[in-house]
Design brief:
Distance between the termini: 24 Å
Largest sheet: none
Order of helices and strands: HHHHHHHHHHHHHHHH
Strand content: under 5%
Radius of gyration: 18 Å
Shape: globular
């Protein structure tokens, strides 16, 4: 798909994140289920509050394509911080930090590449071209969002102000930051490998939606992703064993040893500690790419 209009990208990435939360996926907030401190409405407010920043991100990508900006001038950290600030202004929880962190570099890359597949290489170039000041803004964004399970007392501690000077001193840009943290965060892996999981999920979704209705295709896709990957949000919040349990149970649903409703119940037994949020963020990006690729809704 060539010559993508800025607004096509913005609309696709807004709709993709709204679809992700609406579709009744096991263990997540959806149109039938809420958590005590996180509801469907948090997502609706948060995901639509970042439309202007998605537009700005896509626009910066276009300026890079037209050689009016250099890739290092994309200011990914600033865009992420602005989007997270917007989200926090309209609701009091943290429904979309992961989605923002994935969507912003990719929408810049899509504006630059003007092509879905070519954006993968561009996003790696953008992450590599970032500066330590992007990392500082990214840290400020994390503080605003205050996601669960962020470790304190580590090197370049997000919550320690002296980290800002250390990031500059050691020249830690977003790529280096991702390399340090990719073991404990799926999003950083995506930054480094050109959104490998998001794109493979999008390609598989495209295949599934050619013969299945949207909800069924997305559910099947989510189960496949859960069965093949550990969710880093679950690891951060509840530990590796819990994440491994979710993966094992998802496999059982796919092999029809476990009922989907039963699986959903298992995921909700301990409030939100087994909520596969990192993999849900991947689904949001994949659904956005599906829409951008021209998927039209039909029952």
């Amino acid at each position: 798909m060539m010559d993508m209009d800025k607004w096509e990208i913005v609309k696709a990435f807004t709709l993709g994140s709204l679809l992700e939360v609406a579709i009744p996926k096991p263990g997540n907030v959806n149109r039938y289920r809420d958590f005590e401190d996180l509801t469907l409405y948090h997502f609706l407010f948060a995901n639509t509050s970042v439309i202007d920043v998605l537009f700005e991100a896509t626009h910066r990508g276009e300026l890079i394509r037209e050689e009016k900006l250099q890739p290092e001038e994309a200011k990914l950290g600033e865009l992420i911080k602005k989007a997270v600030g917007n989200s926090k202004k309209v609701q009091n929880s943290n429904p979309n930090f992961g989605i923002i962190t994935l969507a912003i570099p990719l929408t810049v890359a899509l504006g630059w590449a003007n092509n879905i597949e070519l954006a993968r290489e561009k996003v790696k170039l953008l992450i590599s071209a970032s500066s330590p000041y992007d990392s500082i803004d990214f840290y400020k964004a994390i503080r605003i969002a205050n996601p669960k399970g962020v470790k304190k007392g580590v090197t370049y501690d997000v919550y320690d102000d002296s980290s800002f000077d250390e990031l500059v001193r050691d020249n830690i840009n977003l790529k280096k930051l991702a390399e340090i943290s990719s073991g404990r965060e799926l999003i950083f892996k995506e930054w480094l490998n050109g959104y490998k999981l998001s794109y493979s999920t999008f390609h598989r979704l495209k295949e599934l939606t050619s013969s299945l209705p949207l909800e069924q295709a997305t559910l099947k896709m989510f189960l496949e992703v859960l069965a093949n990957h550990l969710d880093t949000l679950i690891i951060r919040k509840a530990g590796l064993e819990e994440a491994e349990l979710v993966k094992k149970k998802a496999k059982e649903v796919l092999t029809e040893k476990l009922d989907l409703k039963e699986f959903d119940k298992i995921l909700r037994e301990k409030k939100d500690s087994r909520n596969p949020g990192s993999l849900a963020d991947i689904m949001a990006i994949s659904l956005s790419l599906l829409i951008l690729d021209g998927y039209k809704f039909n029952l």
